[in-house]
Specification:
Helices cover 66% and strands 0% of the residues. With 137 residues, the chain is an all-alpha fold. The radius of gyration is 16 Å and the shape is globular. Its main location: membrane.
Length: 137
């Protein structure tokens, strides 16, 4: 079963490109400029700015790295989607469709990954007893 699979290649492409985009545009700036971000971040759920920023960094740094590797892809897509929903629904309610298009695109891309999973081209450190690689979660 070493045949090329276009759907699996498409999931790989989507997984890597969407994750790199989130990592570079949102995640790394938050992580690298933590102190200034702590003063600037909105706290729409009233969890405290520290917890809100920590969750945003988890969603925009840790989860994309997991998705790039194809580890727990479906689960890792959910925090990115949640941050996008919070941004659109609570933080930036005044945004027009044009202004919110990046957040909508993230919802579409990571929603697709939450449904489709990692595909065949991924790191799967666990194996079933039959020697078959584990299914993506």
């Amino acid at each position: 079963m070493n045949r090329f699979s276009a759907p699996d290649a498409a999931l790989l492409f989507l997984r890597v490109t969407a994750s790199v985009l989130v990592l570079l545009v949102h995640g790394l700036p938050k992580a690298l400029h933590y102190t200034s971000q702590l003063g600037a971040i909105e706290d729409p759920l009233h969890l405290g700015k520290t917890l809100t920023l920590a969750f945003a960094i988890f969603a925009e740094v840790v989860c994309p790295l997991l998705m790039i590797a194809g580890i727990a892809t479906r689960l890792a897509a959910l925090p990115v989607m949640l941050v996008s929903v919070i941004a659109l629904g609570l933080v930036h309610r005044e945004w027009t469709l044009d202004q919110g298009q990046f957040a909508w695109m993230l919802l579409i891309m990571f929603g697709t990954l939450a449904i489709g999973g990692a595909g065949r081209y991924r790191i799967a450190p666990w194996r079933h007893a039959s020697g078959e690689r584990g299914r993506s979660c």
